[in-house]
């Protein structure tokens, strides 16, 4: 009975890491597709990196997370998640406000 616990723990850990890896790849993919579909001059209008810079950062992070898929808790996975979340939580609202013309409120 004592040998059943470590096997179960490894299975649960593997499933959790797979779920986190899929989550990381989805977040990175969404941010990459959004960056590709935006106008290039809008990035400089909101005072952030240019469009090519964001696309390069997000694509490299996604490839590194996919190739070196030691899980999203690895260094590459954490950097990729951080870059994607910075884009989605900082740059995307600025682009949306610039496009809508309604401002922040």
Given the helix and strand composition, which structural class is it?
A: mainly alpha
Helix content range: over 70%
User: Please, how many helices?
Assistant: 4
Shape: elongated
Mean pLDDT value: 85
* Main beta-sheet annotation: none
Strand residue percentage = under 5%
Please give the alpha-carbon distance between the first and last residues: 60 Å
Rounded to an integer in angstroms, the radius of gyration calculated over CA atoms is 18 Å
Residue windows where pLDDT falls under 50 for at least 5 positions: none
Secondary-structure element pattern, one letter each: HHHH
- The total strand number stands at 0
General description of the model:
The chain is mostly helical and 105 residues long. Helices cover 79% and strands 0% of the residues. The chain has helices spanning 4-37, 40-45, 51-67, 75-100. Helix 1 runs parallel beside helix 4 and helix 3 packs antiparallel against helix 4 (75-100). The protein is elongated.
């Amino acid at each position: 009975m004592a040998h059943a616990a470590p096997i179960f723990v490894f299975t649960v850990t593997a499933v959790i890491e797979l779920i986190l890896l899929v989550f990381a790849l989805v977040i990175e993919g969404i941010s990459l597709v959004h960056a590709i579909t935006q106008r290039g001059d809008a990035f400089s209008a909101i005072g952030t990196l240019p469009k090519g810079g964001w696309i390069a950062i997000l694509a490299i992070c996604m490839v590194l997370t996919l190739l070196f898929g030691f899980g999203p808790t690895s260094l590459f996975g954490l950097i990729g998640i951080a870059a994607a979340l910075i884009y989605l939580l900082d740059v995307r609202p600025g682009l949306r406000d610039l496009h809508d013309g309604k401002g922040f409120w």
